Structures are given as C-alpha cells and as structure tokens.
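User: what does the whole thing look like in 3D?
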Amino acid sequence: MGSQSIYWIWLAPLIGAAFNLLVVPMLRIRSKFVVHTVAICSVAVSFIVALACIFPIPGLSADHATLLDAYNRWREAGSPHDSAPALTRHLWDWITIGSANFKLDFRLDTLSAVMALVVTFVGTLIHIYSTGYMADDERYATYFGYLNLFMGSMLILVLGDSLPVMFIGWEGVGLCSYLLIGFWFQNNDFATAGRKAFVVNRIGDFAFILGMLLLFWALTMDGGSTSLSWKELTSPALAGQGGLYTTPLNALRHSHSWIGADHLAAFAGILLFIGACGKSAQIPLYVWLPDAMAGPTPVSALIHAATMVTAGVYMVARLSALYASSTTAMAVVATIGALTAAAAAFMAFAQTDLKKVLAYSTVSQLGFMFTAVGVGAYSAGIFHLMTHAFFKAGLFLGAGSVMHAMSGSGDITKMGGLRKKLPITHITFLIYCLAISGFPLFSGFFSKDEILAGAFGAKQEGWLVSYGVILWAILVVAAVGTAFYMFRLYFLVFGGDKTRCDAETEAHIHESSSSMTAPLVVLAIGALGLGFLGLPEFSFMHGLIEKVPQLSRWLEPSLVGFTDHHGVWHVGSATRYTELSDGTLSILLVVAITGALAGIGIAWGLYRKGPSAWVERFTAGGLGRKLYLASKNKLWVDEFYNLVIIRPFRWVAMALWSFVDKFVIDLIFVNGAAFVVDVFGRVARWFQNGQVERYIVALLVGGALIFYLASRPSAEMTIHVDNADIAPYVDDILGTAERFEDDQDKEALALRRLLAQKDLHPYRVTLRGNAGEGPGSEGSKLTWYLNGKPLDRHEPEVTIDLGQPGEYDLALEAKDGVFGKSKRISRKLVIPDVVDLAYSLEARQAEEAAR
Amino acid sequence: MTRKTLTTLAVTLGVLVAVLALTGNLAHAAEAAAAKTAQAHRKGFVHSGAAAPLFWMFALMVVGGSIFVITRKNLVAAVMGMVGTFFALAATYVMLSAEFIAVIQVLVYAGAIMVLFVFVIMILNRPEAHPMARQAKTGQVLAVLASLYLLWRVGSVLWAVTPPQDAGNPPAQVRVSAGYIDKDGEPVAPKVDDFGSTRAVGSTLFGDYLFPFEAVSLVLLIAVVGAIAVARPHDQKREKAPGEGPDGESVEPTA
Amino acid sequence: MNDIWSNIGFGHFLVLSAVVFAIGTVGVVLRRNALMVLMAIELQLNAANIAVLTFARMHGGAAGTRGQTLAFIVIAVAAAEAAVGLAIVVAVFRRRAHADLDRLTSLKN
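Assistant: Here's the predicted 3D structure for the full assembly of 1215 residues, as structure tokens:
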C-alpha cells in the first residue's frame, strides 16, 4: 500500500461507524460480538494500513513507496528543506468558487504519521478495553459507532492536507466528544456536561474559523486563489523574509490602521490558537474537560487523554512556519501553556474524584505541550504528546478498572489498599504515575525534560531576555506539583492496607477481566519504553543519538521554520531550537529529577498511610484553608463564567424570547399571517356558496366595475415642433447673432427675419389631441391649455406660434359628453434658443470633423 | 285553473289585442300624416306630437308589467303579468317600425313560451313560501346597488347616442337581395317592401341569412331533444313530494 | 322638459331597454324560485331585443332589416333556452321536491 490507499486510514473507522450506527439498528442485530468485532477490526485495519504505509511490511506495503523509504531518500538527498517526504492523495476538488480552491487532499508525512500511529494504536487498545467496560450497557452498538466515528474524524483531522480538511475533522471530533460525553444522557448532569463541552469547543471553533478566514483573505487579496494547504501555508512566499506572515496588517490592502501594526502571523496564529484552546482545554476554555468525566471512562481515555485534546498541539506544530514568524503568537501560546500547566496542577491538589484528578492532570500536561511548541520546541511538544497518550490513556483505563472494582464509585477518599486486590491494575498504574511524574528513565522523564530544556533555552527575538527562564521556572513548579498530586492519588487509592469503603462494596472488589487488563499492560510497556525516542542531547551521547531513531530527526522535514541567524533569514528545521551546553543541560536534568523526587517524596510522606492528618490540620483554618478551598473549587472559574457570561446571556435570551419570539414573531407574523389568510379566505368563500344568485351578484359587481373603468374619459396628445432643422443654416444664424451682439432687439428682429426667410419655425408647435376611443368619446369636448391658461381652442389640431424659446406647459383637457367628467394631460416642452442651438451644433460638427 | 282566472285571462287578452290593433294603426297614421313631424324627424326624433303619449303609455305598461312580474308570490300571476308585458312590448316594437317582429313576439313569446311556463308551473305546483331570497342580504344589496349603478351608467351612455342624420325620418322602402343570381349573373332583388314588413325580414332571413336560419332550427331541435332527455322520468328511486302518491301521480286536486 | 316628453327620440327607447334589463337583473338576483328566475331572464332578453330593434330603426335600410332578423333569431333562441331551462327545473324538482335556488348548493366550494 502506497499513497494510493492512505485514505483507508480514516475511511475504515467510518465504515465501522456506519455499520454500528445504521445497519445494526436497522437489522436489529443483537449480538455484541458482531458489534465489537466490526468496530475493533475497522480500527485495527486503520492501524495496519497506517503501518503499512509508513514502514515497509513485506506483503502489505508497496515496494519502495512507504513513508520510511521516502524519508530515507530525503536524507540521502541531503535533507533539502523545500521538499518533504510525504504520501499524498488527492481525492477530489471540493470547493472551487472564486478564490477558494479547497481540495479534499490527504497527506501522510512524518508528523501526521506519528499522530496517526498514536491515534490508531491507542484507539485500538481502547476499543478492546471497551468491550469489557461497556459490556452491560444496552446502547453497546451506538457506543462503538460513536467511538469509530470519532476515530474517523480524528484521522481526517490528522491526515488532512489543508486547513479546511483539518477543520472537517476538527468539527467531527467536537461532535463525537459531545455524543460520547453525554452518552448516558438520561442523567441530566451528564447531558449538561456534553453540552458544555460542545459549546466551549464551539467558541474555540469560532476563533479558528476567523483565523482561517484571515489567512484566506490575506492569501487571496491580490486576486489569486488558495487551497489553504500546508504546502501553501508553510511556503517561503509567506514565511520567509518579507513574506506575508511578517507583514504588518495595516500595510495590507483594505485594512484599517486601528487593527494595529502587528503581523498577520500574529493575528492568525492567536486566532487559531484560541481554537486550539477550546479543543485542547487551555485557559480560558478548559472548563469543559473536568465536567467531561461524566462520560464513560474509555471515552475519557481516548478523547481526553490521547487524541482529541492533542489536536491543538498538532495544529500548532503543523503551522510551525506560521508561529515561527511571529514571536507575539509564540509568546501567547507559551505563556498560556505554562499558566495552564501550573493552575491545573494546583486545582488537582484537592480533588477527591479519581477521574477529576486525571482530568486536571490532562489539562496541565497539555499546558506543558503548548509551552513546548510555544517556545519553538515543536518536536519536544510532539514527543510529549506521544508519551502522554500512552501513560494518560493508561491512567484513565486503570481508573476505569478501579472504578469497576469499586462498583462504579470514583471517590478516592473511600479507596485504599487496593494494591493487593488489583495487582495488574496496580502495577500498571504505578508505571504510569512514575512516567507522568518524570521519574528517570520512564518515557515521561525524557519528554518532559526536553520541554524544560527547550523552555529554558528559548531565545526568541523580541522576547524578554529571560522570559524562557521564567517559563521554565513555572513549568518546574508545575512538574513538582504533577508528581505530588499523582502520587497523592496513587497512595490514596492503592496505598495503605485497609479499604475505606463499606463492606458491601468491599466484597465486590475484583481484578478486571483480561479484555481490560491487557490494554493496560500494553500501554505500560509503551509508557516505560518510548523514552529512547528523545534522548537528551549531551555531547557525549551524540554517537548514541545518531544510531537510535530520534523523533526530532523524523519530524524534521515536516516542521519547517524560518529563523533569523545573524540577520539572514534561513529556512531551518524547527526541531533544533537551542544549543545548550552540557553543563546547563545537566543542571536542568538534576533540577528536574530533584523536583520529581521531591514531589513523590512529599506525597509519600503525607499520604502513604491514607488520608493525611497533617493536611487536615493544615487546611482547617487560615491560609491553608483558603488554599484548600481555592484548589477544591477550581479557583472558582466556573462560577465566574456563570456570573459574567452565562447569566447575562440567559437574561438576554429570555428577554428576546418573551418579546421577539412570543410577541413579534408568534403573534404578529405567525398568527397575523394566518389571520390575513383567513380574512381573504372569508371573502373568497363568500362568493362560492353554491347559490347561483351569488354568482350572478359577482358577475354584476364585476361588470359594473369594468363598465366604470371603460367609460372613464381619456385623452391623448402629441406635440410637434414645426421645422426646427436649422443644421444647414448654422453659419447664417451665428453670423447674424454676432453682427448684432450689442443690440438685443435688433438681433431678435434680424433673427426673426432670417428665420422667416428660410422658412424655419423653431418656435411654432402643432398640437394634436383626441379623447380616446371609449364609450362617450364622440361627444366629448376638447380644450387646450398653455401654461395653465385655456386657449379657447377646441379643435383636435391646433397650431400655436410661441414666438420665444423657453419652457412651456401644454395641456389638453377632454370633457366627457355623457358624464361630464374631464381628464387633463399635460406635457412640458422646452424650446431652446436658436442661437444656442446653433452654437452646440457647430461644436458638434467641429468635433466630428476632428475625428 | 279556476274559471274565474280563465275569464280574467281571456278578457285581458282580448283587450290587449284590441288595443294593439288600434294603436298599431294609430301609430302608423300619426307617423304618415303629420308634417311637422318631418322637422322633428330631421332632428332625430322618431315620434312626436300625438304619438308621444302613446309611447309613454306603452313604456309604462312595459316597466310596470316587469315590476309586477318579479314581485309576485303566485307564479301563475307572474306568468300572466309577463304576458301582459309582452303585449305592451309588442306595441313598442310596432312604434319602432318592426311590425313583423311585434307579431312574432306575441305569437312565440306570449303564445308559446309563456304557455310552456304555465305547464311547468302546473307540474311543480308549489307556491313559494318565501318569495324573496331571505339569506345573504349583503349579496342582495350589493347586487341591487350594482344593477342600479350599471343602469345609470349604461343608461347615460345610451341616452347620449347620436343617431346619424335623418334617422328620424320614416324608414324608406327596402330592397333586399334574395341571395341568388339570375340568368344574367345579376343578384336577384325581389320587390321592394316596407321596412319592417314580413317580406323584408323574410327576404333577409331566407336570403343572406339562410345558414343562420338553418342553424337556429338546429338549435331548436337540440333544445327539444335535450329538454326531453333532461326532464323525462328516470326509473329510479326518488324522493317523493308531499303531495305525491305511490305511483308518482299527484293526489292533490289540480285545477 | 317639453322636448323630452313630447319628442320621442332613440334615446328614450334605449333607456327603456336599460330599465327593463335592470328590472330583469334585480329579479334574477332577488328571487328564489327557479321559474321566477327564468322569467326574469326572459325579461332581460326582451330588453336586449328592444335595443337591437332601436338600432335597426336608427340605421334603416338593409342594415336595419338585418337588425330585425337578429331580433327574430334572438326570440327563437330564447325559446330554446327557456325550454331547456324549464326541463332542468323539472328534473331538479323531481329529485329534490323543490325548486328553491337558495337550497340548491351542491356546487358549494
């Protein structure tokens, strides 16, 4: 399989979705086996196709046409930056209107390959897990259908070759997120949570669309057309020196100066990033994620740990050329990422629901990722995305296993001592916790370390001198916090000897079935072992780094950045962003390890035997209590939004409803329209009551009307000016006029004589009129009027010598002989002065002669 | 019909016939004799002097008779009134020099059509409970108003019609083509006769207008056949009128 | 005044025709019994005849004679129409035992 078949990667899950959502209900298939087999197979097929397209698999892949082959060829060609190894497939031209040239194209390059593999692999595992977890649910097929739909949308997002195609997937995952969060919609709170997710997402999507439109406008400003494909958006024309990205907006045509002098890239980048905030739960649009824990746990694992929430990071990485062109955008991304990382970690300290802790943890880790791509460490961000997918999905699945054992409860205050009772879950959970805390040699350690190093060494033009260091510091605090709350969670759930729940629940505790524990094991292997893909770049390790496949090298062709090295714009790789010395690197490493161990240690000290008495004392009063409440209440952000945004909106909506909807639309338009129709209907009905007399009445009334209209007086009139053709005599007239220039009277006299001599009568009019041809028109009397005064002329044809040029008002009145009614029509007549006419004619003749 | 009614009818008929005969002659006499009417004729007037009151009398009878007809509850009375109106109308036709048509009017209209009406009334034999339509006053008022308006408007226009010059003169003799040519190829024109006479109208009818004549007779044929087809009793169950017996005959005493 | 009353012109006949026509129309509209309506229709036809004959007299000569021929044909056709109309009334009466136009509303809507 080569590039021809990459669309199967997203199509297979969609076929599975169609089967489970449409065919199963139609044919009333009740077999769970059929349902989950189709679902798992469709995702597995997707994974296998992706593998075969990327790595050469004998028997499946096309010869020498896999992505790996292309990548190797690219490397052999010297890694040219104007071409990239990729498998593309053009499906069809989607919209070709005006300057929009959107195509349905898909692209499997090194970046999207990473994403695709992560998504399909973790997705398959979660599908397998769901067979056990959702076994008792009656909407089994619907669940798997939605899950497949989600997979398809996510893969479209990842494989799309242009912003619009990506947006299709973007919207699709938002929809599936809504459907799956609110899966148990019979519970009002769950349904609300789904709605909240969708609405907040939508706000982000709005900004995303604005960003797309801004780019579209900028690219088509001068009349070209664009498809907003990655190739276009990362081309030198845009991102290079003097390119469109770095043009201040008010220098672009049609823009107004108040928008500001900042760059196109900044605005577009920030707008798109707001969209990413919505999707990837950053400040201020993260509020949906904790509530989204209302959905089934596998959903949380797939969507809110591994896949959907990483779409934002992917987008920023994809548009690395755009972001690299604007330090403003990058600063915004990095800052928000860092703040989110810290704030979410803080909020996780006091949560008592297992999944909520993990939710905040996701938000926090996403903050890490955004900080990474914000400082230009794109491959670090993607690497952390990858490792996070494994251990976070594993954490959620493990949580699901725990909750399954605890009969559905997620309250960690009632857990404890589960490590003996749930051995596999326990071991894998421990692995995940160590990974996320950055314990050395687990995968999380490597990815987090890369991010920290990137933040520390970020030297972007235009930033504060040590801004990167500030970000680094925030991230370190967040990392310590991460370690702390994760192990708090671990100890409260698995630590100690006694389980703090009631006897009935305790009796029920059992390890989950293999369908649930097998994925846990696989993910744990990944959480342990993937670290090698991003080794820290110590100088002494260069030899090793060359031999081991590194993610940053793999991503190099797809993450193109343009950097200014000493005044010269270079096309450079966006993966190697900093050159830190060995010493700095090792100090950072030590700090990171210390922080992780410190966090783990504090948690161990406080919670190893269960809920901590010290913490209870600490949070009983004063500052401790305030901090505790702040964390428990999630910094009151939801309440703030409710007050500032939701309540006013509700109020406006109510006002609009009661006035506009109820009164204007319902009463005036809907009922009013019905009323008008009714009135007309009544009138019409009156005529059709079956009685002949009624019809005759209608006839009579109509006849009377017609006869009235036909017997009204009418009049017609035509005006004809006698012989005003002075063209042959222009010279004579002008000569006469000039001769008597000073004396008006003599001039007038001479002109009159001249005109009479040549038989010209430009001031004489002949009027013809009649009284129409209606009944009674023979007996009608005609009267002519000149300028309002009756001329006492009653013939149908009169000749009047007006004598002078000017404006005249001629009218004819016809008086009906039978009824005495009269009708008058009038016309305005403008007679120009003969001399002026002569001048204008002469001018026109001269013009024609000149031509 | 009672004997009383029959007598009244006969007397009325007789009187009318007498009056008609008399006035027809009188009208002609007045027309042919008076010299000053020639002047009136040039002005476009048809009758003047002695004949004028005759016109008003007959006109009054026509209008009065019409109003009488449409306001009767008793259908037979209405029919009688109609007959009277037709007689007056025939007299009016005579004043318009259309003697043939006048006679045809009496013969056909008063003589045949009204008799037909009488027959049907006898079949139906139900006096109207409420002669005037009770329902829908709106429609009635509207219709009457519309009719009056039309009357006024059309009447005004008609009143102002200007006749051609010398139209008032007594009509000259007429020579109409017989509709065929003689052996020399000239159209044959039979003897001249007075305007409005039988021969004049007959020559036109059977000459130039032979085809329409035949068509009209076809119309009459169709009408007869159609009337029979529509009105014949169909052998099916039908509602019985209150005065009907089991075999469809009327048990009420008929006149 | 003198003129109109003692000098009868064509206008008088025409106005007479209009008046009779109006009376006939009012009769058609206001009466319920079908036979009455038919009689009023006959009145209307006669009014039309008056007008035709007046114009025939106005133009005189061969044209006028043609007008009278038209009046003749009108009478004939009126006879045919009356026959058919009466037949219909009889048929309706047979079915419904009344000839009340106000109650014959099966053409409603």
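In plain terms: Confidence is low (pLDDT under 50) at residues 248-255 of chain B. Strands of chain B lie at 45-48.
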